[in-house]
Amino acid sequence: MTGQPSVSLLDVASYLPGEPIGADYYAQFADSDELRDNVMFRGPSFRHHVGPEESATDMIERAAQGLIDRHGRDVVDNVDILITHAQMPDMPFYGGGGAIAHRLGMRPSWVLDLHNGGCAAFVLALNVARRLIASGEGRTALIAVAQNAAGQVFDQPGVRRKAQAAIPGDGAAVGLVALSDQSPILDVECRTYGEYAGDMTLAIDPARKWWQPGPGEACIGFTETKIAKVLARGNRQVPEVAFAVCDRIGLSSKDIDLLVTNQPNRVFLRNWREALELPESRHLDTYDECGNLFGAGIPVNLDRAISDGRLEAGDVVMMAAFAHAGDFAGAAAVRWGGRG
């Protein structure tokens, strides 16, 4: 992006639905599961679940209220580019961009729904937003991410008995990106590993396609072999993309002021900060409070860091994540300038 206009991540705002749900909720349903002792499924103390009638659009609207409260209604009304990602779209045939734009009273020139970004969707959206803005396609972009699978898929009666059910939590967040030098996006690295795209599967008993009617409930098709592969890929990919960004901006990983990653489990969190040679104090960790927030993990945690004073003006925050079974990974560095 050398010679291009400066594009900044000006602010983020988030929303967590309902009251925290404790580990004892899942303990009452626990069934025999050969994967229960796997490091991948050591559950958090708490997580949040989307309400029974709460849509992804509802969640985004509630997250966006934080931006409106801080910056005024115009900051949303005048957005040129809307980029969205929902773990569970409200309708299977199209993304939520149109409904979100209408709900927020926006008339954007660009509406893009990203699905392949998964847990790294916020990084992917930052990359798309900065390139569109730098090329003159608009002055402001809103990134809207919703994770709503915990209270819908993983709380199904048959699924919540499995070890995997206690890990996810629900939440939503929005990010405001604009032509500005306030909090510049220093660099972004996005990598697609298409050879792993088929390694995340749904398991339904009896077997059927996800859209066919039937008695079985869908869950993620984990096996010990698949878990070992995902652990190896995630351990490697997140540091790799973060190091790539560090190299290009001339920053040692040890000098990252705050690392914000997706939050799959405690093992990944520990391994990533050790690989980047960072102490726990410089890696935001809300896993025990929120569980695995999938694509909403980075912006929800970034909002928490800003609100709690963990980021000061001039600090470099590194956002990094991998998606699904390792088919995508991304990292983005921002020099934080404070909430304007």
From TrEMBL:
Source lineage: Bacteria, Bacillati, Actinomycetota, Actinomycetes, Mycobacteriales
InterPro entries for the chain: ACP_syn_III_C, ACP_syn_III_N, Thiolase-like
PANTHER family tied to this protein: 3-OXOACYL-[ACYL-CARRIER-PROTEIN] SYNTHASE 3, BETA-KETOACYL-[ACYL-CARRIER-PROTEIN] SYNTHASE III
Signal sequence segment: none
Record-given protein name: 3-oxoacyl-ACP synthase
Residue ranges occupied by any Beta-ketoacyl-[acyl-carrier-protein] synthase III N-terminal domain in the UniProt entry: 116-194
Coiled-coil regions listed: none
Keyword Metal-binding: no
Keyword Metal-binding attached: no
Top-rank lineage group of the source organism: Bacteria
Domain Beta-ketoacyl-[acyl-carrier-protein] synthase III C-terminal residue range list: 246-336
Keywords linked to the UniProt accession: Acyltransferase, Transferase
Database matches in Pfam families: ACP_syn_III, ACP_syn_III_C
